[in-house]
Amino acid sequence: MLTITTDVDGLARFGRALADPIRCRVLLALGEAPAYPADLSDALGISRTRLSNHLACLRDCGLVVAVPEGRRTRYELSDPRLGHALDDLRTAVIAVETDLTCPDAETTGCC
What we know:
The chain has five helices and two strands, in the order ααααββα.
């Protein structure tokens, strides 16, 4: 069942998804092209089990969708505009003090 989120809820889900480096890498890879889990696992150098957990999180956040193709499942961004948003975020200049870390870095979980 598709649920429409509020602006704040949608941004919060996006932020929580981006809080994990592996999920960031998955989103960036899927921004380039849809992919199968086995291919993503190999490309990212992580186990299929670990990848599966991250894909489940990204699905729950509404950022990726699973597209059945016979006996296989292909993953892609849920909306092509997410790829543009990721590119904008990736290329934005962020002022970061190198000796500081985000106070929520250790407590941020998935959606």
